[in-house]
Amino acid sequence: MRLPLLSNWIGVLGPMAVDGLGRNIDYLRISVTDKCNFRCLYCMPDEGVPLLQHCDILTIEEIARFVRIGAEGGIKHIRITGGEPLVRKGIIDLIREIKQIPGIESIAMTTNAFGLAPVAQDFKDAGLDRINISLDTLDPEQFKYLTRRGTIDQVIEGIEASLAVGFDPVKINSVVIRALNQDFLGFAKLTMDKPLHVRFIEFMPVGHQSGINDTGWNETDVIPSDELRNIISDRAEAAGLGRLEAVDKDGKPAGNGPASYYKLPGAQGTIGFISSLSNHFCSTCNRLRLTADGYLRPCLFSDDEYCVREALRYGSDDDVKGVLANALEHKPDSHHYRVGTDRNMSKIGG
Ligand code: SAM
Ligand code: SF4
Predict the structure, then answer these.
(1) Quick one: which of 84, 172, 197, 321 could link to 253 by a disulfide (CB 3.0–4.6 Å)?
(2) How many angstroms separate the alpha carbon of residue 301 from the centre of ligand 1?
(3) 3-class SS of residue 323
(4) Are 27 and 256 in contact (CB under 8 A)?
(5) 262: three-class secondary structure by DSSP
(6) Ligand 1 centroid to 164 CA: how many Å?
(7) pLDDT per residue over 123-176, tens digit each?
(8) What ligand has the least distance to the C-alpha of 204?
(9) pTM of the entire structure?
């Protein structure tokens, strides 16, 4: 049952953003650009996607203003994503600015890490708390095939630099696609010697069926997390590393995501599973997305969006709060296993 709007912005509750179903929304994911230097097979077509007009993209100041207003209403955790955040001019300034906003407790970034190594310290100094690096394969040739642009060496350097400058935790995001037959044991081994947290993400049907952004999603390519956990345990055991063991609350790496965590005996890092499809977490979803062109997207899988750009550009704080409250009120109860969205992941901010 949908509740009457209980958000702080109409003064009914304390400093807490609550959606129309009573879920506490304190996590904002911001796509800072739709551009990317990679063309991952599952995310973007080789030729790229039609880019947004420069004038439609939120400025650094507009994004920071939105975060300030959101923080007044209960947003506490920020993730910077894209497209590729490292290609956005002014990204380090944005992080520095967001870090100083009262009420913001953490700021994290998801990146492909290409070109990260030389600037990792700058991100740390600006106040970035945590970093997630996307890496779907450890095989250089498969990496080239998958990203269509990148070289794995630079990504590995980015991971090493992130650890060296003291990011903690450093998480590796790995989208699992059956047809790719990735080296899951290789990823698991990474967690033995280094404090890395590898999270396997179920391949999601975002962008498919749009007619323009076909990412080629196919249900047979999804490996459900339970199946993958058994595959990794079996392979690790055969390699003499033991089986995965569940990690309790204290052993989990810090973060705001829905992953369930395990580890191999004696490992420094953990292995997480994000079951967006096989065991979805919609009932406890705490997130809201802001697209690079200034739309609030309450659900990754739904194309219902609420334009906040005009309010940010020409309106008062109350105008912005009004759009925010409306978006929260209409956050869907579940993704209902929807296949396909108009925007692909690079335009939503995965
Ligand atoms: N460019 C950055 C990166 O790759 O980390 C940030 C943006 S990317 C869209 C954010 C995350 O979404 C990446 O970890 C990527 O692997 C993931 N992603 C993209 N398309 C996906 C899909 N169809 N299913 C699951 N994850 C996906
Ligand atoms: Fe770029 Fe990230 Fe999409 Fe790959 S997943 S194409 S790196 S936005």
Answers:
(1) 197
(2) 14
(3) helix
(4) yes
(5) strand
(6) 24
(7) 999 999 999 999 999 999 999 999 998 899 999 999 999 999 999 999 999 999
(8) 1
(9) 0.92
